[in-house]
Amino acid sequence: MHTAPTSIVPARTAPPLQPAPPLQSTPRTTLTRGRHRGIEDRDALHDLLAQALLAHVGIDMGTHPVVLPCLPALDIEGPDEGGTLYLHGSVGAVWVRRLLADGSDVCVTVTELDGLVLARSATHHSMNYRCAVVVGRPRVVPEGPEKVRALDLLVDQVVPGRAMHLRPSTRKEMAATCVLAVPLAEASLKMRAGDPVDDEDDVAAGGWAGVVPVQRVLGDPVDAADNEAPVPAHVVRHVADDDGVRRVGMGDDVQRR
Amino acid sequence: MHTAPTSIVPARTAPPLQPAPPLQSTPRTTLTRGRHRGIEDRDALHDLLAQALLAHVGIDMGTHPVVLPCLPALDIEGPDEGGTLYLHGSVGAVWVRRLLADGSDVCVTVTELDGLVLARSATHHSMNYRCAVVVGRPRVVPEGPEKVRALDLLVDQVVPGRAMHLRPSTRKEMAATCVLAVPLAEASLKMRAGDPVDDEDDVAAGGWAGVVPVQRVLGDPVDAADNEAPVPAHVVRHVADDDGVRRVGMGDDVQRR
């Protein structure tokens, strides 16, 4: 059993050298429902994106949207307005080809589920979560130093400090991968934490209500079948540190079983 | 430490009375990249959706797509072609109003992350995951028995067997909630499991490679501040059973720390 942190721990990325601008509210990212759950706090947005292992990117395919999972990587000092969120995909992937061809906006959403909010009535059931929504026009990162750095950031997003332990990518490998840069200028962050909010009558009726914490945890590294080397220190350290990183923002609900 | 299941355990929903049709491949859901990772297996699709606590729904907003998190609920015997995936939202939510107004298709994606695939080169890094993509025209579920049942399914998707322990929703509560039914006819399922696949030269160079398992776990229920009742059996049971449910499909990589 761990004591839950009461405040958000520092993100894995360095803080910006100057204060970041507040989250920009455009009509596309202004929260309309549950405004009290939105927080206009760019640091909190960065914290969520810096820890994310999974984003869902929405692409307009012309007749319908598609939503696909992808790995995001945050560069708060990236060259785009508000900083940069990097995505990548095969140059042959349909969604990448679509974006290259039509240059339309994408929506990148990162959601971390923190708890099942079990109320005394169906209608007040909810989830505790943190959700970032970014809307923007992706830019193709050209071959060169930015692409090398972006691919390193993508590896380091998975396991911090890993990129430096790998051989450099070949030109052929680089050419087979498309890196997209989405500006962080238009973004919103919404979160819910804490207890269910029940109607007075339901509370008086005496039924149980509470929260079941949800947590994503890393397991011990499993060697590949063809591996004969020891698990490197940066991997061991990351798995051991996982408690501190993944439990960010989960409030007082978190208990490890 | 647990022994990982070697096959997919039964979904929480009952099996269909007659064999389900194979997943329909339309141009919108035919896998184009990594075809070997797609599995044309409707039971595997149902297993993933039956366990999902989080879907990401993509909506065409006219000038850009938005991707929002939502809770899905599976009814494999639902009235829509291929079965029904239910979503719900406030009747006042912008995305709900947009769908009601323009009747366009949505994309509902459910992704479960199972492992970080750490290869010997950056390019062969990957994730182990299961991902379902459903594209379809949502139908508004009218007031009546189907809506009551759908809302029960949504509660039971979070904690099986919970809906029966709650008071019935009032007419006002029902009217404030829009339930959408998405047909499961057009769907694809893609997954990756197992070791990294490295280049021979990189294996020969002797660096470490392996998989870090990723798992979503439930913690012990935390009573609400205004609660005086004991945790009900269906909640205790679900949290205790979580190992069996959430660890589905994770192959041999799974170890609980």
UniProtKB/TrEMBL annotation, chains A, B:
It is an enzyme of class 1 (oxidoreductase). SUPFAM superfamilies: FMN-binding split barrel (SSF50475). Its EC number is 1.-.-.-. Coiled coil: none annotated. Gene3D superfamilies: Electron Transport, Fmn-binding Protein, Chain A. Keywords: Oxidoreductase. Residues 1-34 are annotated as: Disordered. InterPro entries: Pyridox_Oxase-rel, Split_barrel_FMN-bd. GO terms for molecular function: oxidoreductase activity. This is Pyridoxamine 5'-phosphate oxidase family protein. It comes from Nocardioides yefusunii.
